[in-house]
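Exercise 7 asks you to align residues with tokens for two separate proteins.
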Amino acid sequence: MSHEVDVVVVGGGPAGLAAATRLRERGVARVLVIEREAQAGGVPRHCVHPGFGLRDLHRSLSGPRYAGELVRRALVHGVEILTSATVTDVDAAGVSLTSMSGTRRIDARAIVVATGARERPRAARHVAGDRPAGIFTTGQLQQWTYVEKLPVGRRALVVGAEHVSFSALMTLRHAGVATVAMATELAHHQSVGGAGLFARAYARAPLHTSTRVLEIRGRRRVESVVLEHVHSGRTWVETVDTVVFTGDWIPDHELVRRGGVVMDPGTLGPSSDAAGRTSIETLYAAGNLMHPVESADVAARGAREVADAVAAELVHRPGGTQPWVTLRCEGPLQWIWPNRIMEGHTPPLLRVRTKDFTAARTLEAVSVEGRVAVSDTLRRTTPHRSLRAPHGIVTALGHGGIEIVRLV
């Protein structure tokens, strides 16, 4: 069968662009990136604050400059980029897409899916109340502020206290909106140290911990929000006209799920190994599709490693059926990754994430017989932030027979 391209990359964000550029550097002849928006570059295009590119480009750039640099590098290396096109189906032999030109099928020797992750909107969080205007996610807020140049509101409540929540705080200030407060159901914020102080100093916004949104009120526009302290049950009302739901990420997994890829119940992304290999031999995952959510430069660096595996296997794809082991997690662990490993192969790392804050505890690798093969200490954890597992646990995975990783 003839192929239109060697590799098609679905998603033109940092991970997709980095993977495509690396594929060309490795000598792959024809690489096509398909991006559904009118411009490639992904979420950083809408983030004007600095800090992008520290780990991959080794300098601090604003989001738009970072995105522009990734696009420039891809084009210089001969990557083809197709924008304003949506991939509707993916399978082992290629993709189907739709655009203003109609529908089209593109066959490829390998497919890299880098569709990223998205924040859960208000509806997915089951917040009660009215359905007025003035409710955003961080992504929607940034598009309104930096792309569409639309007015946002005057007084806002930020729901969440992850890294991205403080990005929303800065965007609100750029939009001329006062942040009345931040609220998180967890006991502490989940960003870097001093983030709570930053919120108070930068936006004069108190951070309400152990607090959830009980109800949103308003007819045409948000008028107020009812908050509840999760332990005491105390409720109060904040008068705001804007609510921004931040974080609580989920992979954009619909495409690979429809394509028949085995999914991981923890990450909610495709079950994958450290090189992005999924249950479909020619289909690879990259970036925050595998496990949400890492920063743009971390996702880009990981995507380059996926591209290395793709390039190598285009030259010599292993013959026959490879024996794979699917890993599960238990205890307060929310997910582990990689959650799919080739039998007898030691992954380069194992990342874990917990559902709540934990002190230093014991991490165990458990065999299929229920025997603890090895244990080690995992330092304290923060929800919404992944952590590398100790080397002893990683090494045990390569010895075979490990089925469960648990925190006790």
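Second protein for Exercise 7:
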Amino acid sequence: MKKKIVFIFIIIAIVFCSDRIIGTISKNAIRNVKDVGLNQTNTVQALFSRKADILILGSSRANHSFDCKIMHNELGLSCYNAGRDGMNIMYDGMILFSYLERYIPKLVVLDLNASMLDDSWNETWQEMLCFYGMSEAVDEVINSQAKPIEMLKLQSNIYRYNKTWEWLLKARLSQDQSFLDGYRPMPVQHDFSEGVDSVKQSFNVDKKNLDMLDKIVKKCRDCGIKVIITYTPSLIIDSGNFAKFLSDYGRKNNLVVFNWNGDVEYSSNPQWFYDKTHLNEDGAKNFTIDFVEKLKCLDKYKL
């Protein structure tokens, strides 16, 4: 009996030590991974190291639309694009509040779409589990979203990092290194010529997501950071009430809203798109110049 008990304690000790070693190695590997243009390596840069005067937040439409080099050349200010595919407003809160711990940008551009604020993408915070325990901002959001059983699982580093080593290994083995400051251009498809679709969907904002949006705006105001909300071009025109929500929110909070929903210049140039909802590299160049020109016309947004 004593031998069985000793054996069990040895197994528990091995698992405990292995778990701690995995946690230490994983955290070190994450913090030191190079930027190779993956969603995860972009997130690492935005959470822990980058310092830029303009911070772009949003989902994939932000990430593939704002060319940071053009922003820098036109405005003379550094820029980092922290947009990430398929993430909702909770992600933007994690990024912004972590970013502000080391640097205060002059401008935050928050690109929004309906899925970021309704409940469509409410589970995407789980993509950030590998950063739990590394950032107070990340921890705060996950603590507010995770169920008790998830919080219990998070005490295990083996669980926390079980989906991490695949992208870490890919980044480590990659010979590439991104110098595009987070921006990830989509390829130009010369045979892409799909037309415009009009979709009328009823938008209902999720209360937790609205609270996070309010927190982002308030934090920027408290830090003296200018905020612009954008709705980037798409070949799917929203004829529902999301565009109205953005307009009403901007007016209520005295925010500038740049809305390209249904913009004829883009809808009549499908060659600027990679697919229905994302600009390609050519489209992003035109769009970024368009955005900068609009920004320059705002006297109170002189940077």
